Amino acid sequence: MKKNYYLWLGIFLASILAVITFIGPYLPFVDKELTGERLLFPADGGVLVAPFAPSEQGYLLGSDREGRDMLSLIIVGAKDTFFIVFSIVIIRYAIAIPLGLFGLKNTGFFPWFVRWWNQLFSSFPVVITAALILCLPPLLFHDQRMFIAIWVIALIEVGRVAFIIQKQAYDLSQKPFIEAGVTIGVRPIRMISGYYLPNLGPEIIVNFFSDIARVVMLIGQLAILNVFISQIFVQTGYFSFTIFNTSNDWATLIKEARRDFIQAIWIPFYPMLAIVISAFTFNLLGEGLRQHFNRHLPS
Amino acid sequence: MIYIDKIWGVMNSIKALLKQVILYIVIICALILIVLIPRDFTVAPLETKGLEIHYQFSWTAYGENITRFISGIWNHHSLGATQYERVTVEDELVRYVPRSLQIIIPAFLLSMILGILKGVYDYVHRYNKRSILGNGLTWLFQSIPDFFIVVCIQWGVTLLFPSLKLLSQNTSYSFLLPAILVSIYPMMYTARITSNALSNEDGQYYIKVAQSKGFSQKRVIYKHIFANALKSILSHTTSIMVHLVTSLLIVEYLLGYQGLSYRLFTALGYKYSAEAVSFSLFESGVIIGIGLVFMSLVILAQFTGYLLKRSLRIL
Questions:
Q1: Could you tell me which residue ranges the ABC transmembrane type-1 domain spans (chain A) (predicted)?
Q2: Domain membership flag for residue A215
Q3: What does A14-51 look like in DSSP terms, one character per residue?
Q4: Ramachandran angles phi, psi of A246, nearest 5°
Q5: How many beta-carbon pairs below 8 A join chains A and B?
Q6: Is A60 contained in some domain?
Q7: Distance between CA atoms of A201 and B270, rounded to whole angstroms?
């Protein structure tokens, strides 16, 4: 049998990410409190102003403009980032799977609803839709902005996910073994758990992982456009405010990519690399699982 | 009998067309209604130092916004004014749309043509060693967000070829680099769709027949399998355009290319400077205008797909 390199590499990378997320903050070289010095006075005299370049003054990956260690920022930020991303995708699937399964007969309200939801949001870039909604004034200053934002991003693409599931469920419902189940009088709930889900499950799991990769990228794109999941406004002058991202997620670090790429490329670069690696990992896991589930099929 | 079938077919296509039109009208209305939500912040001084931003939604202000917008269209045939004096939304669009079209049109062609070729390559080499270059590469590029590629290339270009002025906007080839950058993600998306569509035809009898007649593999793929797969590829032109617009947004913003997306940001109201975000005017007219342009690009892409299918008789 052919070795499933995708799956093994995916599991390997995912376990590294898991270690970084859960154990990383407790490692000795990681500054959990994220304290920073904007000015440093090296022993040979002179003054150094943050951001410090990589491998300068003991900062392995450099520091940000507050003088905080980039490596610590990324490691500590992993938890917040993955919390947001997983919440979005789990909410999305928790809504989309029942919606899709309700529509397996392909008639009535649910398939219509799912189709419209899908088409409504898929004709316009998700980034613009999300940015427009998240920039609505009631949401800008809301205390629970993070949870609302997670729900908004989850709901925008529920239609697409539910549509895929609905279509597959309908295709499945035309198969002889389903009819056989109906004929011998299997109850509807048992039909779903014993007949539909075992067949739909693999595809749903594969899509789940590639959706995680999509959401990671989406959050990065939103951050480039200065739209954050959780933020507060801090006044810096008359009528001028700075957006502070209240969580430590990676998105905050890349917000000034436009300015930083000349002066301090390492500030946006490493968080972006972290996003790339995460997206890559989850895509790999998805593809690996697809090959794993399809291993009995003739290639 | 044949006539009835024909009438039935025409009826069905009219129904489908009507559905699409209603869908787009709903989307445009939703866009307008979201953008016109009033954004008047009252700023009240606090007892301690500083100001408090306060927002209170009012239906009357919302109603006023909507009536003003509609009367603007009705009386002045304009989407409204901008933050600049005597510059209407249309003037701005006339200025910025051509610049973005310079990127979008080459990028769309590039991602369609190269994407399909890449997809065929991925399909042909899906089981041998070159699949690393085929599926593997497609896959890698799909996992790399556009902003990462842009920042890396921007950095590399400024470091390595500062004399080429690839990032300048005053050269005649200034659209080249953005166009290539914008097309990467949609291209990989097209490649993925193409190779999936080709694989879906696997095992069909007509392929076996063609092979048994001794046609070369190239001929079987291009003349037989591809012709059948094209139908499902062309039904994705809408999503390709949506991905393209998404990339355009990021690329224009990061490169500072003065196109539609760049204008969209200035219109969104918070100008982002080094230290502060300041709320300037939220130019609802400009946002709606640019939204409509993006919308029409998507519709245009859908129509192109339809026309291509029609002319190839694979509807």
A1: 97-296
A2: yes
A3: HHHHHHHHHTGGGSTTS-TT----SEE--TTS--EESS
A4: -80, -20
A5: 146
A6: no
A7: 44
User: Residues, chain A, total?
Assistant: 299
Using alpha carbons only, what angle is made at residue B141 by residues A206 and B186, rounded to the nearest 5 degrees?
A: 90
Selected residues 145-204 of chain A with any CB under 8 Å from a CB in chain B: none
Cα–Cα distances in angstroms (integers) from residue A128 to residues B93, B96, B104, in the given order = 18, 18, 17
Phi first, then psi: give them for residue A234, nearest 5 degrees: -120, 130
Q: Given CB atoms, is A132 within the 8 Å cutoff of chain B?
A: yes
User: Structurally, how many domains does chain A consist of?
Assistant: 1
Instruction: Output the domain CATH number for residue A93.
Output: 1.10.3720.10
Q: Cβ separation of B151 and A269 shorter than 8 Å?
A: yes
Does a structural domain hold residue A138? yes
Strand order in the sheet with B270-272: A231-237, A240-245, B277-279, B270-272
| DSSP state for residue A254 in the 8-state scheme | G
Res A203: pLDDT: 84
Q: Per the domain annotation, does A50 fall within a domain?
A: no
Q: State yes or no: pLDDT of A234 exceeds 60.
A: no
Lowest mean pLDDT among A18-32, A153-167, B177-191: A18-32
User: How many angstroms away from the CA of A260 is the closest CA of chain B?
Assistant: 10
What is the phi/psi pair of residue B44, to 5°? -115, 135
Nearest-Cα residue of chain B relative to residue A278 = B143
Expressed as residue numbers, the domain containing A169 is 5-25+74-293
pLDDT band at residue A262, thresholds of 50, 70 and 90? low
Q: What is the largest CA-CA distance in chain A?
A: 87
Task: Locate B278 and state its tokens.
Answer: 């300041």
The 3-state DSSP class for residue A62 equals coil
